[in-house]
Amino acid sequence: MKNDYNGQKFSFHFSYYVNIPELQFKTTNGGISWEKHECLTNPMNFLRSIHFEDNNTGWIAGENGLILKTTDGGSSWFNLTAITTWEIYDIFFPANDVGYICGVSGEFYKTTDSGESWNFIETGLDHSLISIHFPDIANGWVGAGYGTILHTSDGGNTWEIQNTNLGEGIVSLHFADENSGWAISGHSAVINSTNGGITWENKTPDGATNLNALFPINSSKCWVVGDDGKIYHTRNGGIEWTEQVSNTIKNLYSIHFLDSLRGCVGGGNSTILRTNNGGDNWELAEVSHNWAYPVYSIFLTGEDFGWALSTDGVFYSNDSWKNWTYQLIHDYPSFKSIHFSDLNHGWVAGPLGYVFKTENGGIIVPVELTFFGSSVNGNLVTLEWDTATELNNFGFEVERTNVSEKKNEIAAWKKLGFISGAGTTTLPQSYSFVDKNVAAGKYLYRLKQIDNDGRYEYSDNIEAIVTTPAEFSLGQNYPNPFNPATHINYSITEPGKVTLKVFDSVGREVKTLLENFQEAGRYEIVFDAQGLANGIYIYSLNSGDKKLTKKMLLLK
Fold this sequence. Notes:
By secondary structure, the protein is mostly beta strands. Helices cover 0% and strands 52% of the residues.
């Protein structure tokens, strides 16, 4: 299975599809809970290749001539008519109806009805056909054993054999366009064609052995990686090669470049290298787990994003490939193939009938937020939010910023409080937070969801508008009578200095509750009468030339 994700961006949350004897299970919450589905396939079949035309229609091929198809994004699979008992190595659909499979002993078939029926393609070859690549619907190549390449220029109606004369199997094949092709033969030779594969030239770097993967940008520029940390680069179509310093002795198995400068390489023991200058300098990236398993496939999916397929999981990066976080798919290793139909929908296939699916690009999202809203009552802003599931959720920081009505500028975010999360749960959760004494104005609120390991994600912003009071007012305290504390509400219609004082029944001041500048708005303050005698007290609100007074009763 071949794909080029040059320039695309991904982020991943895994929804898993797992097959064990007679049962298939699906999870959409990172493995916290599982839902039983119809059996996918014989549990001993290894799945070798996977291809999706869109978010719903896909095919899988593997051992014993197995071909599976889904029309609902992988929720259910059905077997297509068996056409061979040999192992199928690769499946590729250059169009929704037109597809090809290849495998052991020259097995090669084409479908023109989305896999409902297959027609054998006679090639005259009796050795294995390993990989299929179509840069467009008309032009396609198939890499085979003994240095043989098959080519079509008419959409698969006719095929010609292109012999590289090297006698070893094609392990990596890539065509940048209908003329420019590169391949690795038998892990020992790099070959290049500039005429659509009619002729091939040996362009192996001097002294290079045990080569595993290549990545060409065009007919001139190409990188090749191999064992013992070897990286070779050519700028002139393989006439001259430069051995680049990789800073590792690990075997390197995969390579992908976003453009002529930015690229990554994957290798043994979870090794990932990155460069921003075409490989003149390679930097060892930080990975969260250093497993013995190698990185067999690596994809750069935008300036910041990338992910790498190991044998039992993926590494994901969202910081220009400097740091990679490991995400376990399953503890049974040897995943073989991966395919994405768009930025979010992807599938991984491997042994024992395992198929794993992502619907939002593959990041394991610790908390699924289903609702986040606000309501305003006077000067109180109440925030409410719900979650469907939570994974290692430490909690939520509530943040607020105000928006200037005149300039439409956003001020710095301010932390208001913290609400503890539910940890790990599959049950829906509801949360709330009340922001009190909010002055009139326009505000934005957001949640900072924090994992137990300190990682965090921000929610979308929501808006709340607190209106200016229509009149200058002083509310009756509550409770009343009170002992020893009571609440006092008041409203001011314009900004200015505000004072709120308490007097006894003969007019002596006993306490100043407030003497400060305040914006127009609604406010609440608490009066604690601890230490005062029973009786009637008067509280007075002053702002500018406005004054209001009320009485209250302290009764112990």
